[in-house]
Amino acid sequence: MKDKACLVTALLASATLVPAGAQAKTRGGFEVGAEVFDYSYRERFEGETVAYDDGLFGGLHLSYVETIGGGLFLRGKFATAGGSVDYRSPDANGDDRIENVSQAVGQLELHIGMDFPIGGGATLSPFTGFAGRALIDESGGEVSSGGAQGYDREVGYAYIPLGAGAR
Fold first, then answer.
1. Which end of the chain has less neighbouring CB within 10 Å, N or C?
2. Cβ contacts of 72 within 8 Å, gap of 6 or more
């Protein structure tokens, strides 16, 4: 909680550094970007790590913002990334492993928000909406070093994004 309070304070403080007269409102249009990230998954049972995946992913994200007027905006965000992970499951005989398992993630978010001028030409833009995220793991047909069978899986969930931007 302390980290969140520090982040909000830093965002608000940085918003006041915008020069007077600057156009500090959400801009409409497209945005495209690339990303690379370290993916890590841990599965625990009774406090012990029983399985984990680690790997490097690369992907693409796209977004579009439509300004409506009166400070309102709509935003759609889509991201997809893929890579390979190394599966490990510690056991009494060492690590049970499957190397280079193909995985992919996808995410779609839809936001509605509003710009609020906060002085000095700065704007605070809170938003909310709905979203979904999915992961696909293609380890079916793989056999671990300890003889365990891999399996294909899809994991998905929906959530409500809640956030704010400062400009």
1. N
2. 112, 113, 114
